């Protein structure tokens, strides 16, 4: 089969196979412990996270219009899933809610609900990226020191083990592992220094991939030396081994549709569909901003792809999925060019469980933490903060508040707070932009000329009333509406009240230009 025929049948592109294959390996190495950790935090079977990672990588990648996004289980859904399983009482019943959530997403895609993603302000999206970067940094520091009490994929400041991200760092310093520190330092040196490497043949190898091999080699060296420094299995990736921990038939769990008579199922399904859709749209918007080629993802198509993915995952025992910004960021930083990378990462996840679990279980968390630390810095570098500061307060304040809100709450709540701040900022600007007045051209004794804005809404009423009330006695004011296309009735009423009452009391002459058409409209 030639490349063009393969592209048409699968929607994948083989033109950048080397770049995408190497990137797919790196994303797989990062995604694997994330899938396991999120399943663990969700109170679900361990393999349910792997199933979702495989479905998100293989199926959703083919259906999606995004070239760089990577789908899988999301940390933001872990608490929802945990509570839902407890409410329903058994995992098989919960899977029905996952299937229904996928159906709802599919319907939303056909209803073109994905366009809501176009309404997220740029400052909020950039704030989200920076917040994810900051969380990656502070959450991976303990793993870099060998303190692995929290699962690798957690991005919450407040942890379920009664610690927070900062206390975990303090404890990491007190309980550090020398082997993990050596692996982390060596890994960071390679990840940072690789950009300055001048040997082109070596530079074609992704630094994150080399870091993983180096971490395994260092730990195996410590084991060989028998000096007591080697990392125990608690500090290494751990996936169950087929034939030892479980059988192939036990990997899959099937939904029990007898729960369809329980109203709770529908509430949970709607909740998952809404949260998963919002997280996906946010992640897609963020990945598009990071894309070096600045490609735009068709959002409605993405909702449909996610819907099909969740239906299929729910039918074979997987967790609900979203497009995940961490995996997408790692994908971009590893040099991916097309969605073949996400597709291959899904195949690698499947192969790791079926064929090479013993090898995967040699990878230190410290190596993966180093990769995520560098990814975090690229998302939250100082240049981004300088750029946002230079754009002015209107962009900078929502950006900073979004960061703080996400770091100390969670992704969706933080985004909502950022949106509210952005909307308030627009409203405040709108309130101030009631009219223009050129003080430089105004001569003392001349009439005060207030040129109304193109759109004057009820939000401008307070500003207009304040201005008119501040006019001095025995003055003259001209209210010019010749450029206006809309003036709210409340504003007209306030102007009329001033002319008939306040202006007469202060002996102020009020003249109108172009207001007559608006009076005629409301009379």
Mass-distribution shape:
elongated
Quaternary structure type: single chain
Q: What structural class should be given to the helix and strand makeup?
A: mainly alpha
Mean pLDDT rating: 89
Rg (CA only): 29 Å
- How far do the termini sit from each other? 73 Å
Question: What is the strand arrangement across the widest sheet?
Answer: 3-4-6-8
Q: From N to C, what is the helix and strand string? A: HHHEHHHHHHHHHEHHHHHHHEEEHEEHEH
Whole-number tally of structural domains: 2
**Total helical segments:** 22
Helix content: 55-70%
Polypeptide structure, described:
This protein is mostly helical. It folds into 2 domains: 3-408, no CATH class; 435-522, STAS domain (Transcription Regulator spoIIAA). 62% of the residues lie in helices and 5% in strands. The chain is built from 22 helices and 8 strands. The chain has helices at 3-10, 17-42, 46-63, 78-88, 91-110, 122-144, 165-174, 178-193, 200-203, 207-225, 263-290, 299-316, 325-333, 340-354, 357-360, 365-379, 382-390, 393-408, 411-432, 461-469, 489-505, 516-522; strands at 71-73, 321-323, 435-436, 448-452, 455-456, 476-480, 486-487, 509-513. The strands form 3 sheets. The protein has a 4-stranded mixed beta sheet, covered by helices on one side. Strands 1-2 form a two-stranded antiparallel ribbon. The longest helix has 28 residues, at 263-290. It is a multi-pass membrane protein. Residues 17-401 form the SLC26A/SulP transporter domain. It holds the Pfam family Sulfate_transp.
């Amino acid at each position: 089969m030639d490349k063009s025929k393969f592209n048409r049948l699968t929607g994948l592109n083989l033109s950048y196979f080397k770049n995408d294959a190497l990137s797919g390996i790196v994303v797989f190495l990062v995604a694997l412990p994330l899938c396991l950790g999120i399943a663990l935090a969700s109170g679900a079977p361990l393999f349910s996270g792997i199933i979702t990672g495989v479905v998100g990588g293989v199926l959703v990648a083919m259906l999606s219009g995004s070239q760089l996004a990577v789908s899988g289980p999301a940390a933001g859904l872990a608490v929802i899933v945990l509570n839902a399983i407890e409410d329903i009482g058994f995992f098989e019943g919960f899977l029905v809610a996952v299937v229904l959530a996928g159906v709802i997403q599919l319907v939303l895609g056909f209803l073109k609900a994905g366009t809501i993603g176009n309404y997220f302000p740029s400052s909020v999206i950039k704030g989200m990226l920076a917040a994810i970067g900051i969380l990656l940094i502070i959450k991976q520091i303990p793993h870099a020191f060998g303190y692995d009490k929290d699962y690798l994929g957690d991005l919450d400041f407040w942890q379920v083990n009664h610690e927070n991200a900062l206390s975990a760092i303090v404890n990491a310093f007190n309980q550090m592992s020398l082997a993990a520190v050596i692996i982390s330092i060596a890994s960071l040196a390679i990840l940072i220094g690789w950009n300055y490497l001048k040997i082109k043949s070596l530079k074609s190898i992704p630094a994150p991939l080399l870091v993983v091999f180096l971490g395994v080699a260092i730990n195996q060296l410590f084991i060989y030396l028998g000096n007591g420094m080697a990392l125990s299995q608690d500090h290494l990736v751990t996936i169950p081994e087929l034939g030892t921990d479980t059988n192939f038939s036990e990997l899959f769990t099937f939904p029990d549709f007898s729960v369809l008579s329980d109203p709770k199922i529908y509430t949970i399904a709607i909740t998952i569909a809404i949260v998963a859709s919002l997280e996906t749209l946010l992640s897609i918007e963020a990945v598009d901003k990071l894309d070096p080629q600045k490609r735009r993802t068709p959002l409605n198509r993405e909702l449909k792809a996610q819907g099909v993915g969740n239906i299929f995952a729910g039918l074979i025992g997987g967790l609900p999925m979203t497009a995940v910004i961490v995996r997408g960021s790692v994908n971009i930083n590893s040099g991916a060019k097309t969605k073949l990378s996400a597709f291959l990462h899904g195949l690698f996840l499947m192969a790791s469980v079926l064929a090479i679990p013993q090898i995967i279980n040699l990878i230190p968390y410290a190596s993966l933490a180093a990769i995520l630390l560098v990814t975090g810095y690229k998302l939250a570098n100082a240049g981004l903060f300088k750029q946002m500061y230079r754009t002015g307060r209107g962009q900078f304040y929502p950006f900073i508040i979004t960061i703080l809100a996400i770091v100390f709450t969670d992704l969706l709540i933080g985004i909502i707070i950022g949106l509210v701040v952005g909307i308030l900022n627009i409203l405040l600007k709108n309130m101030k932009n009631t009219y223009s007045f050129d003080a430089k051209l105004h001569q003392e004794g001349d009439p005060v000329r207030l040129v109304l804005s193109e759109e004057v809404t009820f939000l401008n009423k307070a500003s207009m009333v304040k201005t008119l009330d501040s006019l001095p006695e025995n003055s003259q004011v001209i209210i010019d509406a010749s450029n206006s296309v809309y003036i709210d009735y409340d504003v007209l009423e306030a102007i009329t009240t001033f002319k008939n009452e306040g202006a007469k009391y202060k002996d102020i002459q009020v003249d109108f230009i172009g207001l007559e058409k608006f009076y005629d409209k409301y009379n």
